[in-house]
Write a structure and sequence with these properties.
The chain has 99 residues and is mostly beta strands. It has one domain. Helices cover 11% and strands 45% of the residues. The protein is built from 1 helix and 7 strands, in the order E-E-E-E-E-E-E-H. The longest helix has 11 residues. The radius of gyration is 14 Å and the shape is globular. The relative contact order is 0.29.
Length: 99
Amino acid sequence: MYWIDLELENKMNLPQTFVIPKGTTFEVQDPGLREQSLVVAHDIPVTIPPGVHVVKVPAYCMNRDLSSPSRAPGRLTPFRMVAAYQSQDDVWNIVNNAR
């Protein structure tokens, strides 16, 4: 399992609560790095106070044929994995069978 460090900013005066849904997908900003995209492992409830905070989000790698991610800056994608998965092998099997 890998961890995504999300830097989130709460511009409100009160703490904000939300959920980062299972299946949310992040990719490496520089595709030339040939590193795996990541998919959030399970729903992550988050409450952040005002200001900037880092939230650690557990995730699985999506691209078995690419290198493991290594501190490369990433970005949120518009994609979400909706197939049922519980493990790294499940994710790789789903992605490989979708090709």
